[in-house]
């Protein structure tokens, strides 16, 4: 039977602004997103029948997963019965980290299904299917760098952030995303990220102008119990980062370095206290 393997890169929010809460309960966002070389690997194999998901040597069968829902949505869209599929995840992206690991796994699965079963499907249709599963999935399908608006599905491609080296540092805790959105709904913002300025700097390949504009408004509404995020930001700056920003709803902090040796040294230093610390670089589009 056929078998396909597809990398699932992490996503990093270089800038994140929350514009408003929508009547449908979602939020209109304005972001710059970039995929990174830290990635999971998704293997898809045909089997006789059914859908099974395997990760870390375990079969995940207690409830319908995002991956199974995505596969069902794909075959509904192409008006074909779903074949038997075995999906295996080799996980490297931390869970509940603000790095889009789950969304990227779904996106990689959808890319495989398009390649294997409907290569003529427009990418926009694949992204619509992905949006029905999660707001970050459309960007993760595309990868590379983009301005993301709406829920995150309105994408304007950008060049990747050239000359950048990332250190991604996740503390031991997670942060519930609904908690931060609820606090954001009550916030009075004094300073918003210059998302368009960041995008223009990336287009000009102006590294200095880009990194100075990295900012995430979720940092302004972090409850006190998550103050370690700011301690990690300070450590990254002390270790040579040009800037550091929390990715998504956190708690992972992305430090951006110009010098690769400094990035690797910083990752090694932070890993003593934060085992889930990774050196990475920006990656090009997946499609």
Explained architecture:
The protein has 287 residues and is of the alpha+beta class. It folds into 2 domains: 3-158, Ribosomal Protein S5, domain 2, CATH 3.30.230.10; 165-280, Alpha-Beta Plaits (2-Layer Sandwich), CATH 3.30.70. The chain has 9 helices and 12 strands. Strands 1, 2, 3, 4, 5, 6, 7 and 9 form an 8-stranded mixed beta sheet that branches. Strand 1 (3-21) and strand 2 form a beta hairpin. Helix 1 runs parallel beside helix 2. The radius of gyration is 19 Å and the shape is globular. The two termini are 25 Å apart. The model has no long low-confidence stretch (mean pLDDT 95).
Task: Name the descriptors.
alpha+beta, eight-stranded mixed beta sheet, Alpha-Beta Plaits, 32% helix, 287 residues, 2 domains, 9 helices, Ribosomal Protein S5, domain 2, four-stranded antiparallel beta sheet, globular
What is the secondary structure topology, with strand pairs?
Blueprint: E1 3-21, E2 27-47, E3 51-55, E4 58-59, H1 66-77, E5 84-90, H2 101-117, H3 123-131, H4 137-142, E6 145-150, E7 154-158, E8 165-169, H5 177-185, H6 195-203, H7 207-212, E9 215-216, H8 228-238, E10 243-246, E11 253-257, H9 260-271, E12 277-280
Parallel strand pairs: 1-9, 3-5
Antiparallel strand pairs: 1-2, 2-5, 2-6, 3-4, 6-7, 8-11, 8-12, 10-11
Helix pairs in contact: 1-2
């Amino acid at each position: 039977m056929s078998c396909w393997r597809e990398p699932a890169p992490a996503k990093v929010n270089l800038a994140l602004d929350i514009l408003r809460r929508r009547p449908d309960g979602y939020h209109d966002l304005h972001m710059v997103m970039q995929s990174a070389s830290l990635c999971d690997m998704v293997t898809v194999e045909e089997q006789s029948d059914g859908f099974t998901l395997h990760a870390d040597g375990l079969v995940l069968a207690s409830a319908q997963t995002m991956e199974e829902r995505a596969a069902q949505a794909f075959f509904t869209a192409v008006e074909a019965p779903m074949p038997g599929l075995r999906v295996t995840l080799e996980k490297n992206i931390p869970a509940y980290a603000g790095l889009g690991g789950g969304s990227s796994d779904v996106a990689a699965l959808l890319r495989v299904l398009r390649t294997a079963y409907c290569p003529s499907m427009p990418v926009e249709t694949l992204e619509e299917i992905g949006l029905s599963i999660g707001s970050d999935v459309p960007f993760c399908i595309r990868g590379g760098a983009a301005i993301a608006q709406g829920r995150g599905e309105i994408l304007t491609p950008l060049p990747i952030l050239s000359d950048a080296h990332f250190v991604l540092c996740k503390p031991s805790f997670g942060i519930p995303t609904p908690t931060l959105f609820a606090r954001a709904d009550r916030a009075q913002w004094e300073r918003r990220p210059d998302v368009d300025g960041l995008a223009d700097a990336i287009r000009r390949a102006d590294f200095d102008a880009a990194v100075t504009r990295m900012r995430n408004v979720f940092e302004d509404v972090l409850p006190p119990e998550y103050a370690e995020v700011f301690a990690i930001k300070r450590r990254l700056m002390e270790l040579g980062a040009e800037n550091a920003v929390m990715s998504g709803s956190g708690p992972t902090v992305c430090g951006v370095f110009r010098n690769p040796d400094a990035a690797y040294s910083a990752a090694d230093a932070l890993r003593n206290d934060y085992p889930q610390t990774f050196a990475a670089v920006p990656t090009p589009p997946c499609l």
